[in-house]
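Schema walk-through. Below, the input block comes first and the output block second. Nothing else is stored per chain. Lengths vary across the set, and this one has 217 residues.
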Amino acid sequence: MSDQISLSSLDLAALLCSRVCHDLISPAGAIVNGLEVLDESEDEETKTFALDLIKKSARVASARLQFCRIAFGAAGSAGAQIDLGDAGSVAKGFVEDDKVRLAWNLPRVMLAKNRVKLVLNLLLIGQQAIPRGGSLTVDPIGEGETLGFRISATGLNARVPAAAVGLLGGGEAGHTIDAHAIQPYYTGLLARECGMTITVAPEGEAIVIQAANKPQG
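--- output ---
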């Protein structure tokens, strides 16, 4: 549509790469800092702290890499399918921490790659809805190859991520997309590629994000 943001393939690739780097730079930097402390310190307690920091940061970096590989990367050849069970394990490793819990209630089935990428990206939108932590629940809508998704984000002061909603629909022509805004924009592209529509709305104390197939006819 002419009134939507239009990005070249090069700009889209560059911005997605920037987003991935943004996710990885914090744990990577913490690993470097831990190694420097380990190298410079002779105190055993400090060395133990540095090793714990390195181990924790390495786990975080690994979880983020695995998640980004599926959510943003090729993750197989064109037309490939991905196991939703594997995607759920990767999502838990990425999302869960001291503040956020994830209930992944999708069936363990093989699903088209872009649909799996879509649900992982919707999960990131759900994270934005609970900035102070809480719970994320992922449920199926329908079944089979046309499986859709319902994500409920519940937490203190849960709110609809307003900026993300417009970008999910393609944004407005003339607006600038940066590395932060590229993720919801990309999520909208995935939904349209899959023939699905996304809705985001409050429902009681939760913010509910749904991706369902467009009606035929």
